[in-house]
Records
---
Amino acid sequence: MSLVAVGTVAFDVIETPYDSAQDVLGGSATYAALTARLLSRQVGLIAVVGHDFPDDYVRLFERKGVDLAGLKIDPARLTFAWGGRYGEDPNQRTTLFTDLNVLTTFNPVVPPAFRESRIVLLGNLDPYVQLRVLDQMAHPEFTVCDTMNYWIANTPALLNDVLQRIDCLVINDEEARQLSGCQNLADAAEVIKSRGPRILVIKKGEHGAILFDETQVFLLPAFLTASVQDPTGAGDAFLGGFCGQLARESAITAGALRRAMLYGTVMASFAVERLGPDGVVHLSLDAVVQRMRAFKRAVAWPDLC
Amino acid sequence: MSLVAVGTVAFDVIETPYDSAQDVLGGSATYAALTARLLSRQVGLIAVVGHDFPDDYVRLFERKGVDLAGLKIDPARLTFAWGGRYGEDPNQRTTLFTDLNVLTTFNPVVPPAFRESRIVLLGNLDPYVQLRVLDQMAHPEFTVCDTMNYWIANTPALLNDVLQRIDCLVINDEEARQLSGCQNLADAAEVIKSRGPRILVIKKGEHGAILFDETQVFLLPAFLTASVQDPTGAGDAFLGGFCGQLARESAITAGALRRAMLYGTVMASFAVERLGPDGVVHLSLDAVVQRMRAFKRAVAWPDLC
């Protein structure tokens, strides 16, 4: 296995000013796995769903080449469900509900075939689950973790354990400020890196992302898309593109990390263009490559006189 | 004359969480001229001040090579004064006061030596004054204009006349949304360009800037600075760097516009690092060139496998 992804698989309810969707496939592991599989030869999913999880969704993952040996179906509980509503400004999100259901008792088991994976993607969920997955991995080459404000505020000790065991943290600007207590992102990066991860990526949504590696900073704008339908899963799609690219690199160099930033950004740009997971479900590697070319033209530096 | 800049020259009162300053030199023309003069061989200033404007400030401009033949001193009135307070988040600004004083009766006169200028920089002030300056120019090669929410809301007809007579509008994202009625910036750019300017630059503060030229988009992040002391004048410094670079280009090509974006961004990064105008007053071309190198390293694309 080249890449193992743990995270949530959910039923999402999404309301935007233009459209809405009920019980569509969602969750951090869903968006991450469905983007990573476009780049990484093998993607193994570790997640839990309930007895109500439809076969159609199982087959969707399988058809896309995602290995479900690590998907647990809990016969006693319902699938995790989340609902969100976006305003005219897609950065304004209201959470309508969060029904944890199967997540309350999730104790992940990493299948033997997954344990030798080079890249470990810890999608946003309880840091306890992230730690349990790390415990079962043999000797991953590179470990990448996402988290969110809820875990920063409510499980700081567990999250601290995670930080000390990962290579790279990928969070958004608001979370970086909350986690570090610093307003300035350069200061925030110093504080966060001193707590564990050698590498930090700060996502800024429509404003791009910043990579802090061991010695340098890489500033990358977001791809400008004319159609932002639904920001749900954009950060997870970024993570999937980022880790998927790392999985096809022969070594995790400074150049590899910058390339991973490009693929994360392009995957996120597709995720927001359609409602729910459609932007990543129906995505082809050809479309990714074409957008990468357009992206390169849009950020190309002129010659300096 | 290669570049003529019209705008405000002000006394600023600035309060930040860390520091404060009384009656420092400020205004859109001040920041624009003091950055443009680092790049453009000749910079002519068109502005008005009151009888209270100190000789020291006049000499400062002259020492920096800014031609003051277009600076009117109104013996009957006080200099324009503005006060602002910033929160911990430097994007949160409260205007403490705005005393228009000399601006209420300003009718600009462009000195004969300025009329043949190649580049015209219309800094943020009353669009009536911007139009009066345009009326007096012989045949500028490229005209660049800034404005703000106040003029968009209160003088739409005058601003519309300006839009039809300029080559390039430089505004921030909030203003672009207000002016166009579009939330999405790609949509906003289409609407704004349909109203006149061939070229549009949307500034996004710490998140960078976007250039929409006649056929392409150029996405540029901001330079990441560890020290943001005072955002006052950052947008004007961007405009000064942008126009200053255009003034030293032999023709206004797509490459020239992208280079202008780089210099605008670097100038703005210096403006925010010190309180009031100090970041641009004490700036040298050497420092600009060095930062441009660091900026280039920080945005350099990796090879794509």
---
Amino acid sequence: MRLPDSFQKLADLLTELPSIGPRQAIRLVFHLIREGQNSVQTLSQRIADLKKIKICERCFFVHQNAGALCDICGNPSRHQDIIAVVEKETDLLSLENTGRYNGRYFILGEIPKSGILEDWQKLRLQGLKNFIEKNLVSNSEPRTSNGIAEEIILGFNLTSVGDFNASLLEKELKPFAKKISRLGRGLPTGGEIEFADDETLGSALERRD
Amino acid sequence: MRLPDSFQKLADLLTELPSIGPRQAIRLVFHLIREGQNSVQTLSQRIADLKKIKICERCFFVHQNAGALCDICGNPSRHQDIIAVVEKETDLLSLENTGRYNGRYFILGEIPKSGILEDWQKLRLQGLKNFIEKNLVSNSEPRTSNGIAEEIILGFNLTSVGDFNASLLEKELKPFAKKISRLGRGLPTGGEIEFADDETLGSALERRD
């Protein structure tokens, strides 16, 4: 069954979006048509409005500020020398929503399965190193000639892939931070001992407090 | 964490779409931003292009033809007097994709849980009745003064809700068709007897061939 041209082209485009399959794409287009011309116009405009979004030149998060920095990087009350490196913007959001972190972030982008960074990721990482060297002054003695971060948190998933990526990044970033850390392993809140895997339970035992 | 205005507004709008939750909406917006301005512009334009889509005045399916009828209703080789009433456009697509049907369709829209049709649905149904009375001529004797359809297929789900809706529609449409039918019940292709429910298996037994 051939669908109208405008219909099919939009459905194809929607199918390219993450976690939208061909059937859902078709359902979505029918939904939009049913909603009517005003809704269609509004959605089209809201998507076009994304062009107003800027990317922070320091951490690569989104913002709409007059300057080049996002709300977090531009906030003078946040520690610039404690940096959480994350893969995805949504990882930043999750960490930020805990309300327990007062450093800043650095979005590296999803690391390819090969473990080899894309060229744009290498550029981002080089930018981070340059920033640390030029802008962060170590308070510890003996003063190094170059700047150094207080702490770099490798905010990667605690999966085998995340562990692998963290070990790669740790090597890269070791010279640029006094301390390199990862997120703590243990039982999740509400977690039951009976159903925890050995690895998690072992970590919870070691890190008991 | 406050997201930029343009970001949040689009995420809110996407959340209103069927089967897109707030988290997926946010992931989608980040994805669009990462894809860059050209992709954003293309998607915005493709959505705006939906305004070119028309709704068939006879069956209410989508089309982009010069006239008022969709490809199916406008096809002279399809039986106009065999009409499959379906709730959703996607139900039409599924039936059409079987390649085994040469009648036409009528999209009623999703019937509310109350079983009481919305005003616009009543209008559609009245339009169907008018069309049958004015345009379909019965070949059977004695000729009725009004037209009558050869067959109306109630293409509803074989669920208890679908059964209920079918019984309502059957009452409404009985005077307008020589035969009112529903989709056949039985084992699905590839279905195993061991795992079929009693109702399905009973129907399969009764309708054995």
---
Amino acid sequence: MKWTHFSAPGAASAYGILEADDRIREVRGTPFGAHEPTGAVHKLAEVKIEVPLLPRTFYAAGLNYVKHIREYAQLTGNPVAEPKQADIGYRAVNALVAHDEAVVIPSDAKQVEYEGELVVVIGKQARHLSEADALSCVLGYTIGNDVSERLWQASDRTFWRSKNTDTFKPMGPWIETEFDLGAAETTVRLNGEVRTHFRTADMLFDIRTFISRMTHYLTLYPGDVIWMGTDGKSPQLKVGDVVEVEITGLGCLRNHFVAEAAGRKSTA
Amino acid sequence: MKWTHFSAPGAASAYGILEADDRIREVRGTPFGAHEPTGAVHKLAEVKIEVPLLPRTFYAAGLNYVKHIREYAQLTGNPVAEPKQADIGYRAVNALVAHDEAVVIPSDAKQVEYEGELVVVIGKQARHLSEADALSCVLGYTIGNDVSERLWQASDRTFWRSKNTDTFKPMGPWIETEFDLGAAETTVRLNGEVRTHFRTADMLFDIRTFISRMTHYLTLYPGDVIWMGTDGKSPQLKVGDVVEVEITGLGCLRNHFVAEAAGRKSTA
């Protein structure tokens, strides 16, 4: 089942269930609590797809595929090998944008790259889950693009602007509750051409390992998300590029890259 | 004005304004939007103080006082000197607890310490603020205790469990909208005895610097918080300890430390 967060023209955003890949059956409520059909049905082509959810806590595995780890070591000049344990990291809600929204490249950004990632969406509050029970708290899965500025990633003490500049975290297009990770492949296309391709399950630490280890120390809540990391290397992106991240069974997250507008306005 | 988030016996939590340090004038709404008095007044002594807010994004300056930076370098064996620029970090909402709630020391934690910190609460959406205008987006200030397990902080690839284990982030007791940073001192008492004391304004990078630099790349939203870092060194905490963090004009955040209960229950 595909949970879609959308806005119909002139209406507030709502959740709905995608049917036959072209229409949305609107519900009152959310996937995380009580919900019932409103009776309204929308054509997918006539609504705006919104970010599937604003996470309560936005977790990210970071380095979690072997090829990508080697490239990261090369970037930082740090010969550190694979992480020895599943230590989760964080991204920030300000940076989220939806399917088909623009990623804005700041005027002082030099080396912007994509990272196509599987996203786990938590549906139930969970603590002290064994690896065997770990997936019991998962509502479903979506796609993320962990857009990164590599020079800031190397120079800064944290990932705040390299990873969390406004618009650097496309997520969507929807939450799929049925997913066969073992059969899934992640494909990233740049301007229509396949540039990155990997088996989605080729993780160093898998979803069960992360959830079990995390819930040993912390509570997962409905609306938390965990981005599972990426493999391979991205080319350097430029204004006008279109990046599509497709994961088997989950759909395709597409975003275009634009330049920061001149004459930025101070607001508060 | 002191914005207090509280629960009266048998009622849902609400915001109110603390008056004469002993009673709360309840409002309908929140400090971040429209609000009006409900007419109800509660005795402070008869309500439960709640976490002042669940931040939308939970920012933390981390290393931002010179003495603390030297001690951190000693801990990690890393001779890195002061940060060269104001790079903001993150903490996680799962870890928040309120004034007078317990901090739970996990059974496998070895070296737990306090960090008394000034917390900035954002009240207005803000982007591209100059240092001169930076404070225009601030609603007020509160107090945080950035409880940390130092061995995990040194061993793990991220601060996920060293800083964000459930209950490791006491925040409160309320949000004070009037604050004289220049006159403020931070005092931390352990079991009633002063153990740490520093000028709150002695930051390496001040609030204006952080907000201006952050909003060059990202949007701050109402309900974001920025924890400004700590100075000095904490003794090692143990079960039964009571830690009070007091900042001039903001009040006192008090929490007691307890052991993790045996027979933890798996939940999802």
---
Amino acid sequence: MGTAQISAGHRKWVRSLHRKRIGEKEKAFIAEGFNALEAAIETKLHPILEIITEQDHLERVLALASDRGMPIYTCSRSVIEELSTEKTPQGVLVICSRVTCSFRELDESPPETVLYLDRVSDPGNLGTIIRTSLWFGISHLVLSPFCVDPFNTKTIRASAGAIFKARIYQPVDSGEMRKFSKRMEYLKVAMVPHGGSHPDALRKEGRKIVMLGQEAGGLSNDLMECADLSVSIPGRGDVESLNLSVASAIALYEIAQRRAPFR
Amino acid sequence: MGTAQISAGHRKWVRSLHRKRIGEKEKAFIAEGFNALEAAIETKLHPILEIITEQDHLERVLALASDRGMPIYTCSRSVIEELSTEKTPQGVLVICSRVTCSFRELDESPPETVLYLDRVSDPGNLGTIIRTSLWFGISHLVLSPFCVDPFNTKTIRASAGAIFKARIYQPVDSGEMRKFSKRMEYLKVAMVPHGGSHPDALRKEGRKIVMLGQEAGGLSNDLMECADLSVSIPGRGDVESLNLSVASAIALYEIAQRRAPFR
């Protein structure tokens, strides 16, 4: 497959993908850099639609992708800067297919742990949560309506490549999630700022849905009420709360300990 | 104390404080919002030099601060937008004294746990680490040379008020830190991505300095070599690493467990 220069109309289309509404309509998103390119090639979960690269990086891009049949466009540094949302763009943009998984498929091979994120609004938090989940081997993330776009550039950056490995289901409302949980016999765990059990309760064997709420307001009443177990991270009260991605990380860490019991 | 309008020259000075070099020279930093104002008043660690508020918030500002003798300036929304680095400014800017603590003072009342941050470069990570530390009752943070400015607006925002409660020592180079550790009998713990002990090793009683390295390259060789113990967070290998503030949080969480033993 040869390479081509990128036209003005094409550039306009690429820029438009940064907007959630357009990205969803076009079923595409933009990831940046060689790490993203390698992850996209490796996992195939979000097939690459095209690659846009600075001339300087063309050789390296071709070495990775030349025999894979996707279009490769070259452009100048200034065009990369126009298309990127990074302060210092890495020089390679990977346009990928937005693939979200069908929630019904989870019935066929229900994983031990599922994360349910209720209206998480910060893209950096969402990306970090995806990264941390994958680190601990938890790859199924279910997003409520009104969550930030998981294919937002900032989310993708914070995920450090994990977006290409995560299975994301969205939007799934609380009713649907509750039915799934009942049908498949999951324990619904609500992460709450205060008053819940110690996180080591998460080490117990058995299927769990861990529910995390939005940064400002936490979980909806609806989800709080349906929880089988509430868990809080004990603190010393010098600050009001933990950052959401930090609280998630501690919960995920404890879940992972069930495989490596306390010594 | 009365209120006054803010002059053009004064506005220029305030804007200049966003730059690290100027902030350090002027020994001042800017925090935004009522939470910051309340925390600054409550803790007194970083005395308030002045408050700048939109006319709309003046009454609330006066209720909190009127009898405390600091100048209060009022201005229009557009001036607040000019002075703030927030996308949607909250309408109140608090100019505070940059106070960094003297590292020598730690000898007098050495805390059980000290964090040593080696060239941490992301302001959001640093702020989140400060927030998480305070949550777990660890308030002494020692920063190496070349760390991001702890009084950066983004750091302060991510700290969610914790910057006003943390005791920050900087810059402290690795030699000085090692001498302190030897003199005061601290265990030097290096957080490393792979190959270290399980984090539950952090539950052991005794003085510890937990050393965390920069996002990209980790700890310097120097620090790696001087460590008495290396700790890694076991993962499943689906991503390369954890975010620095997440790794710190899991370490701090484990340290906090020494007070509440595993059930």
